[in-house]
Structures are given as structure tokens and as C-alpha cells.
Design a protein that fits this description.
four-stranded parallel beta sheet, globular, 27% helix, alpha/beta, 9 helices, 359 residues, Rossmann fold, 2 domains
Length: 359
Amino acid sequence: MPRRVLINVNRFIVLFVVFLLLGIITAPLYNHTFQLTSGSVDSKGPATRALKEPDEVVYAIIAPQSFESSLQPLVDWKTQKGVPTQVFTTEYIIGQYPGLPDLEAKVHAFLEDLEDDEVNLTYVMLAGDSEIIPPRYLYTNAYFIGFTDYYAGDVYYAGLDNDWDTDDDGYYGEYSTSSGFDADLNFDVTVGRLPIDTSAHVDNVVDKVLTYEKNPPVGDWVSKMEIWGTIMDAPNDPTKYDSWEDNAYKVGEKVYDIMKDNYSVNRRYDYSKLPGGDYTLATDYLKKSVVLTPVNDGLSIINYAGQAWYDGTTIAHYNSNTGMHDTNSPTAWPSRCSSGPSGPTTSMPTSCRWCSRAG
């Protein structure tokens, strides 16, 4: 389903600072164990549980048991840096919350309990693709304006003050004119996801993270940044083109103003102005033949704002993994739909796949 999406600059800044902090904090190694003892579970709410020998958990990783050993080097490293980290398996969580309807609800309930007991819980990583740890499909009631009624959202795991279905009707996150939002949008933790689906993917991602944080390759690549912005409708057609929602140029320029003093920034746009009427292919600088070169040479950050998929054509030229740099890989900030696939698909050409795909 096509959607017009532009980057939220504030979100970009917050996420950047979060990852920066995770990378620079240093402190002695912590020994830590968190375990829930048995307790009562009703058909809806989370279990009431006591802690057995609790210690601090700042960074919780939710993963299937088959990923646990592969994630351990990352757990050890984060803890050594002063961010006490622990893996909690989905098998364990499922066993603790038998009265809840699905894995999404069980993981949410577990995080709610964990956040209640671990006052310093700050980060949650979902280590698994959507078929392993599903996102919660949130009800938007948007069908009447031409969109689907449900959208997948990992933000469900960040708001832990209620279960996002306060009226018990099975519609998570919905808005009611009488009762307001079911969703808890006052987030308690920062949630991220590694879209991985095999142990080999886990090994690859953990190796990349540890290399990046412990012994990053030296060179000027660390100060290089790319800003990419697409158009979503033909700018020469005034009946379709609305500059405020169809062109990522202005967003890219705002990000450039923030980052230009600290990075060597290249900006590449489909259309490098807002008023319509002047678009030509000759001045479209966002092409696969152009953008693959800096990616292959190595760079630190890609900021991409635009459409994930629009009638199968909008960014179809950019869905290639050819020549991806093995070590000097960038961190990508894609502001658009469908940012999380871990491997190629025919329906979601995605720049994110170049930089964060596990394979």
C-alpha cells in the first residue's frame, strides 16, 4: 500500500544519540541474573511475579533460544562497557505467560514486568525477523481514506503502562472519540530490532557490531555521509504533486544543516527543489549507478527519506546488493515504510537492505 513518508528529524537525532551512547559508555563488567519465579496469571493481564536474586538489566534482548549462544559475545561486550545486558528467550517468556493470547502479548507483558522491577531498563532489542518475534498489528481505522486498517508497529513494545487494548475488544492501539487512544505512546524504553532469521545471520550481525565498536577499520570513511531523498509523485504534474508531502528534498536539507559541521556530506535527490515544473532525468541524481559508488567505497551514515514502494517503480533502481562493502558498512536511517526486511523481496526494494541486512 503506497504511503507518503518523510523523515522525523527529532526521531533521527534521538536514535543517533542512543546508538552513540551505547558505543561510548565504559565501566567494569557486571555479573547479572534476572529470573521470574512462578506466579498467578489471568486471561489478559501480565503475571504477578517476584524476582529471584535480581540485578540491574539496562539492555534486554528478546530472542529465540537457538540464537542465545550466538548473541552471548554481544551481551558480554555491552555489559563490559557498562550497559548490563541479558538475553531472555521467547521459549522462557511463553512458559511464563500461558494465559495471554499470542507471543506479542506475552513479550509485552514480560517487558512490562521487567520494566517494573528493573528501574534502569532502557533498551530492548528484538532479535528476530517478524515471523520469529511478530510486531503488533495496530488498528488505525484508515480504510475509509484509502489505506489499510492495520499497520505493524514495534512501538507496541515500547509503551508498557497498559496492554494497548484497554477496552478489551481485540483492536490494539485504536483511537476512540470517547476513551482516547488504547496505545501507550509515552514510551518507557527504546526498542530496536535485528531482522535476522537464522543463527548464521546472528553470527554475521554480532561480528559486524563487535568489529565496528571494538576495532573499526581506520580511514576517512568514518566521516562520510550520504543524504538521499526521493520524490513520490511527478513534480511536473500539478494535479498530483504536493511539495510538502511528495518531495524529501526539504527534509534532506534539514538533516544536512545538522550534520554538515561534523561529516563530509553528499546530497543526492531525485529533485533538488520544492516547486514543481522543472524535473528532468538529467538532473535526477539519485540513481543506482551513482549511489552504489560511495556505498562500495565505504561510508559511515546513510540518511534516506522517501517511499518504500510506489506502484513498483519509485525506487526500483536502488534495490541492489551488488558490491556491498564488507567492512566499512554504513548505518542507515531509512524514513519510510517497510524498513525492516532482512533479505531481498520482489515487492519491497529497500535501501535499508544494503546496510543492515544480516546476510
